[in-house]
Every structure is written in structure tokens, then in C-alpha cells.
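A favour, since you know our C-alpha cells better than I do. Could you add the entry underneath, on a fresh line?
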Amino acid sequence: MRFAIVINLDYDSNPEEVCRHLWRRIREEMLEEGFRLEGRLFTMEMKNENACDRARQVIDRLNEDSSLVEYDIYKYLKEFYGYNHTHTVNLLLPPTTEIRLDDSMG
């Protein structure tokens, strides 16, 4: 099962420089934990519970690094959620009802 973790920082309420630095560290730690970065999504072939636990562990570890953020790291998170990525629909592609196979190649 392909699972995705979404992490968006709250740039509106926090200093941009701090958020940029925090995002770099989150990205590094998530990649080290075994997630793949796809745009702004971290994905992994794993069961939901395990992927969520790993993502929370990364954020909790970073939260313990007092040199990273002044307060609780969760204050800097705008969104932090996970979902089954296999149900995602890429809206940049045409609907599957419009895809036609050319049988003249046969």
C-alpha cells in the first residue's frame, strides 16, 4: 500500500527564514526515515499506521532539537496528515473515460 504524508508549514504566522530551515530539516529526516519526496508529499510503501508512526517520530525527534525552533515544533505546522496515496487522482491527466487505446497498431 502506498501511503502519503503531507506536511505544510505555517509561513503566515511564523518567520519565513525559520520555516525554510525547518522544512530542510524535515525533508532530510523524512528521507532518512525511508520516505520518498514527490513534490511536497512524502510517500512510502507501507501500512497506514506504520507510516503515520514513522512521520510522527520524525517530527517528535525534531521537536527535541532545541536549536531548531524556539518553541513546540507543532506551532509551525499548518497541515500534518496522512492518507492512502493509491486513491489520489492526478488532475493534470485527462479523465480515464477520455483515454482511448489505438487498436490500429495490432
About this structure: The chain has a mean pLDDT of 88. The CA atoms of residues 54 and 103 lie 46 Å apart. The two ends are 34 Å apart (CA to CA).
